[in-house]
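Re: your question about F-box domain-containing protein

S., sorry for the slow reply, the queue was backed up all week. Below is exactly what I fed in.
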Amino acid sequence: MAMSTAGRSPMATLPTELLAGIFGHAAQDAHEIYIRSLKHELLPADPRLPRPYCWIRITHVCSLWRAIALSTPALWTNISLIDTDPTYKILQRTRSLNITVTFRLPAKSPAPGGLPWEQVDKRMHLYSWLLLAETRRITAVTAPAMLGDFSSDVVGEATQLRSLVILAPDLGRISSAPGAYAFPALEHLEYRAAGSISPVPLLCATLRTLVVQPMWENAVDPYTAYMLGVRKLVRALRGMPRLEALDVSIADSRNVPPVPEIKHEPVPAARLHTVRLIGVAPACAHFLQHVALPPDARLDIESVVRNIQPDMAPRPVPHAIAAVLQGPPSTLSAPCAAFSIESADGGGYVLRGWRRADARYAAGAADVVLRCGMRKADADLVVLLRVFALHGVEHVRIVCRHLGLFGPYAGFDQLARGARLRSIVLDGVKADLAVYLLPTTTAADVALENVKFKPSGPEDAKQWEDERAPRPEAIVPERPNTMRELAQLLAASTAEERAIRRLKLTRVQNVRAEDVEGLREHVAEVNWDRVESMNLTYDRN
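Result:
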């Protein structure tokens, strides 16, 4: 009774999208809903309605709300394809208003109680019929491609279609010709396919936002999924003068040869203010060299560089990354101000970069993220630190589970030349890297996190040797890796520009109070988050 006398005021406070979801389910007959619930053939739940059946029951017991819904066409414009009869009823309620269509396919192996394939096939035919029958009314589509139903005449009639989101490879026969499906008013295209089908036929001059990425849940390695070639992308940008945001996966990391040169002037992209690239470092550099971005563009790069080629020849990883950062002045006029190195088990590198003007700087986010899974990555690290130092890097964060000094370390004492580092964070690195890197840095703020030093006292030496894994004979030299040795090296570094002002120790093992007191003689401020446990393990992944 209380529900039926709720009145119209609470109804008016609910968002239109929520009401559309509520009454979309209410369009079905109550008896049909009850039968479906008994058979456990539940309807797909809307993300905005975690418990849609609760709303269905409320709608069916509240005659006032139902009357309002049936008399308000705007509440029925968002159509989620469920079954034939409900779809027809919803279309009748919309009258002549524009509509949006959402169609998601279930998994290939339906769960117990899921929809049988007969129902899936029925919905696919319903989707095809809806695209053809209501072409002029549809403003947005989220569904598998099914573009084979669109002829050139039908594409020309879709004058209201503004957004197209494709969530799976195309299920029908489509044309591969560029611009074959150039909708006259399409502004947002999101192509998240699980295969290697090219989105080139969908690119058109009216686009403002272009997203071409693989579906992560279906890709074994999201960085090796070929989605859009660099040459095709650069060529397509010439035909998209209104493009404002670009988010694409541009190359296959298995293509180890250099990207072929494009012999023409850089493509002007005056309106392209947001760019996110996923691909190998040479491909990203190649794209930046042939696209003239505006100076205030927000750049976001996630690049994979395999350290080992199929012929087991090492790749020049630092040089490839430097090529990305050393783009044309019009592309990277404001260099990165921070970068982070993180560990990964893939045996490769992932570079992520943003511009200095990005709002994420205020939140302390890293500008460039470099993941390295190689055990002998210290030589690359030396080169990379020099590269970033030359580009005005100010904040460094190294997060590597296995990164240590396994090879020559003569280059670390030269890192301070020309460097402008202001802060450095070493997270999970080996102690020998921390001991050698900190005395040579110009950073005033230093933080050590999840670093396990060798015990300074002789009574703990045997326990330390028992815990350590056996090293190959090629890795012979014993590096200084105690906090006491770090203090001694800091004392030897007397240059004023190398003095550390603040040192923060967080979850650092095998550190004693007397070791911290020794650090305070050479560092103005030391903050120690004491860890008593000797068996604390750290796994970044």
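The mean pLDDT is 63. The first strand starts at residue 78 and ends at 80.

Happy to talk it through on Thursday.
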